[in-house]
Amino acid sequence: MNEYQFTEDFRVTDEIKRKFDEDGYIILRSVLSEKETSILTSAVENEEGVIKYMYGHDDGDGRKIKMCLWNHPGNDVSGMLARCEKIAGTMEQLLGGEVYHYHSKLIMKEAHTGGQFNWHQDYGYWYKNGCLFPDMGSVTIAIDKSDRENGCLQIIPGSQKLGRIDHVIIGGQTGADMERVKLVMEALPLVYVTLNPGDALYFHSNVLHRSDQNRSGRRRWAIICTYNRASNNPVLEHHHPFYTPMTKVPNSAIGNCQQLLNMEEKDFMHPDRDKTTVSSLLA
């Protein structure tokens, strides 16, 4: 199993690192406490917070995916989340070296209307940004319960070993070549990643993943914190940061954050800046 229960003395052991290298992911249950999850939820739901910068992608099947994205963590509670040891420090251990914050985003799949994400590798995007190596990874932290009914993440364990698959524009997204994906799915298993609020999925940038539309009566919101190895500084000018040293904070910084809605220094993405997708602003 690739699932572990978070405790304050959690560390990435040799066995956990081996599982991550073999399958491309681990799940860490209850990485956020109920208090921390409640604080984070209240902050991201506030109209003066990150959702002021929301925009949308066409999912290629008649619906939109709502999100907001920022390049630098900042000093609000989402910044404390992205910089804390149990998120950023764990990713450093999994990727094998110093990381910096590449970007974070809030994904909002609303009840009955939330769009799908097509099959893709994150490195399918980031390759085009001048990141020479796939020494990158993301942490998806569930704000709401995430299951098959409301369009949870689906991953193909071991697919990070395939290398980068060709990607093309599908609707408003960059998606993996589906002929190749079909062949991969004949050889490798499919996992539906079910998460409770406060659970986290850590996954490698070359893991193939997707999610269905949300046709349920429950929303599915999640924050995704993405990291790049410091040694993998991009070689092309693009819309995400070059290496920027990141000051990590203790885990207690989430619950103790006094600047819940400080949007300074975050550098929010305007969709016109992203050349790897076709985006549209939402009113």
UniProtKB/TrEMBL annotation:
InterPro entries reported in the protein's UniProt record: Oxoglu/Fe-dep_dioxygenase_dom, Phytyl_CoA_dOase-like
Domain of life of the organism encoding this protein: Eukaryota
Cofactor: Fe cation
Entries under SUPFAM superfamilies matching the protein: Clavaminate synthase-like
Domain Fe2OG dioxygenase, chain residue ranges per copy: 90-231
PROSITE patterns documented for this protein: FE2OG_OXY (PS51471)
Alphabetized Pfam families for the sequence: PhyH
MF GO annotations: dioxygenase activity
UniProt keyword annotations, A-Z: Dioxygenase, Iron, Metal-binding, Oxidoreductase
Similarity comment text for this entry: Belongs to the iron/ascorbate-dependent oxidoreductase family.
Name of the protein described by the UniProt record: Phytanoyl-CoA dioxygenase domain-containing protein 1 homolog
Species this chain originates from: Saccoglossus kowalevskii
